[in-house]
Design goal:
CATH superfamily: P-loop containing nucleotide triphosphate hydrolases
CATH class: Alpha Beta
Number of helices: 8
Shape: globular
Helix content: 40-55%
Structural class: alpha/beta
Strand order of the largest sheet: 2-3-1-4-5
Strand content: 5-15%
Bound molecules: thymidine-5'-phosphate
CATH architecture: 3-Layer(aba) Sandwich
Order of helices and strands: EHEHHEHHEHHEH
Distance between the termini: 19 Å
Length: 205
C-alpha cells in the first residue's frame, strides 16, 4: 500500500474529532492527498449501521450484536473507501477504528478481546494503522464536554467510561510504538502543536 493510515482514538469528549479535522486542513495546505473518515460511518451502509448503534431506543441490543455491527460498519468502510484510498497513496485519517471496539466493547463491556481481534482481522482485511494518537482525558471531564442529548453509548455509566479509558491506556502500554498518548489538559492550539509534531514525524514532513 502506497498510502499512510493514521487513526485518532479516545474516550468521550476528548476533542479528537476537532484535532482530526484540523490536521486534515494542515495537510491539505501542504498539498498532501488526505482523506478524513469516521467510525462508525463514512459510507452509506456504515452510516445506517451507526444509526442503529447510537439510537437510544435500542436498549435490548446484546453486546455480541453490538460488537458485530461495529465490525460490519468497519468492513464496509474498509472495502469501499479505505483500501482503494491507501492503494492510491492517500494519507487516511480515521476518527476511531478497531482500537475503539477493543476499548468500548472489550474493556468496557466484557466482550472477549481475542475474539474482537480475530473478527477485527477479518473485517479490516488485516489493514492496520501505522500511527494511532490516543487523546486521553479524565473521564468525568470528558463526559461533561459531550452534547446535552446523549447517544446510546454516551448514556452508559461513569464506571463503564472509566473502564474504556483504562482499556485504552492498557492498549497504549502494550503497543507503545504505534500508539502515542496525548494528554488533553491544555488548550486546543497547544494540543494541535503536539499532534502536528507526531504527524510530521510519521510522514517525514
Ligand atoms: P463518536 O462519538 O466518536 O462519533 O463515536 C460514536 C460512539 O461509538 C462513541 O460513543 C464510541 C462508540 N464506539 C464503540 O463503542 N465501538 C467502536 O468500535 C466504535 C468505532 C465506536
Amino acid at each position: 500500500m502506497k498510502g499512510k493510515f493514521i487513526t485518532f482514538e479516545g474516550s468521550e469528549g476528548s476533542g479528537k474529532s476537532t484535532q482530526a479535522a484540523l490536521i486534515c486542513e494542515y495537510l491539505k495546505k501542504k498539498k498532501i492527498p488526505v482523506l478524513l473518515l469516521r467510525e462508525p460511518g463514512g459510507v452509506k451502509i456504515s452510516e445506517a449501521i451507526r444509526g442503529l448503534l447510537l439510537d437510544v431506543k435500542n436498549t435490548d441490543m446484546t453486546k455480541e450484536s453490538e460488537t458485530l455491527l461495529y465490525m460490519a460498519s468497519r468492513a464496509q468502510l474498509v472495502e469501499e473507501i479505505l483500501k482503494p484510498a491507501l492503494k492510491k497513496g492517500t494519507v487516511v485519517i480515521c476518527d476511531r477504528f478497531l482500537d475503539s471496539t477493543i476499548a468500548y466493547q472489550g474493556f468496557g463491556n466484557g466482550v472477549d478481546i481475542n475474539a474482537i481481534k480475530k473478527i477485527g482481522a477479518f473485517a479490516t482485511q488485516g489493514i492496520a494503522p501505522g500511527l494511532t494518537l490516543l487523546f486521553d482525558i479524565e473521564t468525568e471531564k470528558g463526559l461533561s464536554r459531550t452534547n446535552v442529548v446523549k447517544d446510546r453509548i454516551e448514556l452508559r455509566s461513569v464506571n463503564y467510561h472509566r473502564r474504556v479509558r483504562k482499556g485504552y491506556l492498557a492498549l497504549a502500554k502494550s503497543e507503545s510504538k504505534r500508539i502515542r498518548v496525548i494528554k488533553v489538559d491544555q488548550g486546543k492550539e497547544e494540543i494541535f502543536e503536539i499532534v502536528r509534531k507526531h504527524i510530521d514525524k510519521f510522514l517525514n514532513l
